[in-house]
Specification:
Largest sheet: 5 strands, parallel
Number of strands: 9
Strand content: 15-25%
Helix content: 25-40%
Number of helices: 6
Length: 159
């Protein structure tokens, strides 16, 4: 099986058109660096709340605008993951040293409407953390636990 996969990868690479603005090896390198960085940046609900109250902190919600409008952490800024790009990040969070708090669907239980579950390996926290890290943002903290929406201390709002 592994040999077939290697041959398929080689064949696919040999047949593929080069595109200088798509870099899978670079992405995997950055993802591994981000994973090491992230290991010390996952915070409890209480720590997330404490950090969110400090001046200059941005709570970033990378879910779709539709889900954000339905329900989001109070004070969160929405920049949907597909819209994370050089210019949108500069406009939303101009200073890469800004403290950024992130959360995603997989942080909340009993909230399938606004926070539909994703596969654990496809959690939006992972993609968002890697993207922010790749763009130079290193002061990022991720809400770690799975929290029951019915008993959380976090405040929410909708649009």
């Amino acid at each position: 099986m592994a040999r077939a996969l290697v041959l398929l990868c080689w064949f696919g690479t040999a047949m593929a058109q080069d595109n200088p603005v798509i870099d899978m090896p670079g992405y995997l390198r950055i993802a591994n660096e981000a994973a090491v960085h992230r290991a010390t940046r996952r915070v409890s609900e209480a720590e997330f709340i404490r950090l969110s109250r400090e001046p200059g902190t941005v709570i970033l919600d990378a879910r779709s605008r539709e889900k954000y409008d339905e329900l989001h952490v109070k004070g969160a800024v929405n920049l949907s993951f597909p819209d994370i790009a050089i210019e949108t990040l500069r406009a939303t969070i101009p200073d890469v040293a800004t403290r950024i708090l992130i959360y995603c669907n997989n942080n909340f239980a009993n909230a399938e409407g606004p926070f539909p579950a994703k596969l654990a390996s496809a959690s939006l926290n992972l993609s968002t953390y890697i993207a922010l890290y790749n763009y130079g943002y290193r002061n990022v903290y991720e809400l770690a636990p799975l929290i029951d929406l019915r008993s959380t201390q976090l405040e929410f709002e909708s649009r």
